[in-house]
Write a structure and sequence with these properties.
By secondary structure, the protein is of the alpha/beta class. It has 2 domains: about 140 residues, Aspartate Aminotransferase, domain 1; about 240 residues, Type I PLP-dependent aspartate aminotransferase-like (Major domain) (Aspartate Aminotransferase, domain 2), CATH 3.40.640.10. It is built from 15 helices and 13 strands. A 7-stranded mixed sheet has the order 2-8-7-6-5-3-4, sandwiched between helices. A 4-stranded antiparallel sheet has the order 9-10-13-12. Strand 3, helix 7 and strand 4 form a beta-alpha-beta unit.
């Protein structure tokens, strides 16, 4: 059940009395089984035995951050004034930098004073936005396959995730979304485009169709835009914030973690609807004192640099995923080549599930088999939603040479089992 503070806070955002408190399901019901525990235990066991583990389960970049932002960080750390408390919603210099990035890269104008709130990474931004928007027991329509952190965020605020498959055709997407929203009565649509895990990218026309559906129903759109700058081929992705022109309420989550190879910095932002941004900033004022100041100054330099600091990273990932896509396809895996990001979403052959033996989740069995036999750790499709147990996700966080070794090892193991 929500605390009195949260009920009052949510009421202040919506401009009226909060809905009657609803008894939230238990965390055990919401979060369910820890599907990854057997994999974590097996990984720990191998490491304790001195056996190698190649971790491709998490997008934890192996590429170095751009040198200019490291230099700016080091310079800032030496100043005694930067070791004081920061501002929970971010210093103005960084908020202006996010606004400039959105203007120059995505064609969206933002007021840095009212439409940007710096957050401690994308998880922090998503969690706080949901915390403001929904009551315990409310439904949230979530794109499927779902980024696991989104399912967790919905659960942690006491909501129910209703998974919706993002169809690429704008008209079909609008029709199916309208049905999902009407059936679930959800007032929040949580998306992740460009997509993790699939690498799918949608066109501006897609956002127009989806935005119209949400505007008609008073549904708020939250789009995780972490891979917005990481489209293959040079162009940036279309921002969801364009739907504001249709009257839809929308915020977007942006992060430096992947594009600038600084996941440990936890630098992100929530951008868009001023009313929601104001509410999140107020909530964060109760929760934290903001990000370490040198990190904010270095992030501001990254976002406003005249040099393209992101393109070398995108080029490296594009080469890697193409090698991995081609290699897996060659040995019988079903893969759609991603158009953005740094992952490969692959449907494994039926024989691969049989190699894992046992019962239960096929994708977890495949992941356990790859780890036990080859020391390769991947993310099972089960954690992205119940309808994706025939898939696993590979994070392209190793060199092209290592990726070729991974494909060769999987191929050799498969051939050995068929003799």
């Amino acid at each position: 059940m929500k605390s009195p503070f949260n009920l009052a806070f949510t009421a202040s955002f919506f401009g009226g009395a909060a809905a009657a408190p609803v008894e939230a399901p238990s965390f055990d019901q919401l979060l369910g089984q820890d599907f990854l525990r057997p994999l974590k235990e097996l990984q720990h066991q191998r490491l304790m035995e001195g056996l190698p583990v190649l971790d491709l389960s998490m997008v934890n970049p192996d590429l170095p951050p751009p040198r200019p932002i490291i230099d700016r960080l080091l310079e800032s750390v030496t100043k005694m004034s930067t070791h004081r408390y920061a501002v929970s919603r971010g210093v103005r210099r960084l908020r202006e930098a996010f606004a400039e990035k959105y203007d120059t890269s995505f064609g969206q104008k933002l007021d840095p004073e009212s439409e940007v709130c710096v957050c401690l990474g994308s998880k922090d931004a998503t969690f706080h936005a949901l915390r403001v928007l929904i009551h315990a027991g409310d439904s949230v329509v979530v794109a499927a396959p779902a980024y696991p952190a989104h399912l967790s965020a919905v659960a942690l605020v006491g909501g129910w995730a209703v998974q919706w498959r993002c169809l690429p055709d704008p008209g079909q997407a609008a029709d199916s979304l309208a049905k999902a929203l009407d059936t679930s009565r959800a007032k929040v649509l949580l998306l992740n485009l460009p997509s993790n895990p699939t690498g799918a990218v949608v066109a501006p026309e897609w956002w127009s169709a989806v935005g119209r559906v949400c505007a008609e129903r008073g549904v708020t759109i939250i789009n995780d835009f972490v891979y917005g700058e990481m489209c293959f081929g040079g162009a940036a992705a279309a921002s969801a914030l364009a739907v504001r022109a249709q009257g839809a309420t929308c915020v977007e989550v942006y992060s430096l973690s992947k594009a600038y190879n600084v996941p440990g910095w936890r630098v992100g932002a929530l951008a868009g609807d001023a009313k929601l941004i104001r509410a999140v900033a107020r909530l964060k004022a109760h929760a934290d004192y903001g990000l370490f100041l040198p990190l904010q100054y270095a992030a501001a330099l990254a976002l406003t640099s005249k040099e393209d600091l992101v393109r070398p990273t995108v080029t490296a990932y594009e080469r890697r995923v193409r090698v991995l896509t081609a290699g897996l396809s060659r040995i019988g895996w079903e893969v759609v080549e991603p158009r953005a990001g740094c992952c490969v979403w692959a449907r494994f052959p039926i024989a691969a599930a049989a190699e894992g033996g046992g019962e239960g989740s096929a994708s977890i069995r495949v992941a356990e088999s790859l780890l036990a036999r080859l020391g390769i750790l991947v993310a099972p499709g089960k954690v992205f939603g119940d309808g994706f147990d025939e898939y696993v996700r590979f994070a392209a966080v190793v060199s092209e040479e290592r990726i070729r070794d991974v494909v060769a090892a999987i191929s050799s193991a498969s051939h050995a089992n068929t003799r």
